[in-house]
Amino acid sequence: MVTQVRADDRIAARVWEALAHVADPEIPAVSVIDMGMVERVDVAGGRVRVVVLPTFTGCPAVPQIEADVARAAQAVEGVVEARVEMSFDPPWTTDRITPDGRRRLRDFGLAPPEDGVPVLIASIGLPDRARCPFCGSRATRAESMFGPTPCRAVFYCDACRNPFEQFKPV
User: Fold this and answer.
1) Is residue 131 a contact partner of residue 140, using CB atoms and an 8 Å limit?
2) Which residues, in sequence order, are bridge partners of residue 17?
3) Cα–Cα distance measured from residue 116 to residue 133, given in angstroms and rounded to the nearest whole number
4) Residue environment code for 110-135, b if the CB has 16+ CB neighbours within 10 A, otherwise e
5) pTM greater than 0.85 (yes/no)
6) Cα-flanking dihedrals φ and ψ of residue 151, to 5°?
7) Which positions of the chain have pLDDT values less than 50?
8) Which of 18, 35, 121, 161 is close enough to 72 for a disulfide, judged by CB 3.0 to 4.6 Å?
9) C-alpha distances out from residue 40 to 15, 32, 89, Å
10) Could you write out the three-class secondary structure of the chain?
11) Count of CB atoms within 10 A of residue 103's CB?
12) What is d(CA 158, CA 135) in angstroms, rounded to the nearest whole number?
């Protein structure tokens, strides 16, 4: 019994490592781990269950994320079966994005939400400013609360004259 538990722990660690290479289909610069989307990995006798928290209800990338996560988990040595469950319990929030994920978002040209700084306020829309991921300036302005995906808004930096997307916090 103890041997099986240790084997399951080793498999779980390898699954977590494999998931660190599963890119978010809409933001390929970050992984599902960087985004904090993986809630847990359970392993019992080589059978793996990965619980994933979608970033937004109705996110069109969910089927692709589910397939990519399943494929990555199934490829791990010792895995005999991999199952992916999408869950909204607990709900995903932008607080789950790792520090490395925030850096990668900035490097990609997408402003990550800042701790304690709301970006999307449902009752009044977007705030006036966000930090530019290119130059770091706060001389920015909201252009549109509608970006290319439901999870992003469009801003413009008056300092470096670049448009950029801001990841909406939830």
Assistant:
1) yes
2) none
3) 17
4) bbbbeeeeebbeeeeebbebbbbbbe
5) no
6) -95, 5
7) 117-124
8) 18
9) 10, 12, 12
10) CHHHHHHHHHHHHHHHHHHCCCECCCCCCCECCCCCCEEEEEEECCEEEEEECCCCCCCCCHHHHHHHHHHHHHCCCCCCEEEEEECCCCCCCHHHCCHHHHHHHHHHCEECCCCCCCCCECCCECCCCCCCCCCCCCCEEEEECCCCCCCEEEEEECCCCCEEEEECCC
11) 14
12) 10
Query: With contact defined as beta carbons under 8 Å apart, do 30 and 101 qualify?
Result: yes
Q: Rounded to whole angstroms, how far apart are CA atoms 61 and 82?
A: 19
Taking the C-alpha atoms of residue 33 and residue 96, their distance in angstroms, rounded to an integer, is: 9
* Rounded distance between C-alpha atoms, residue 29 and residue 21, angstroms: 10
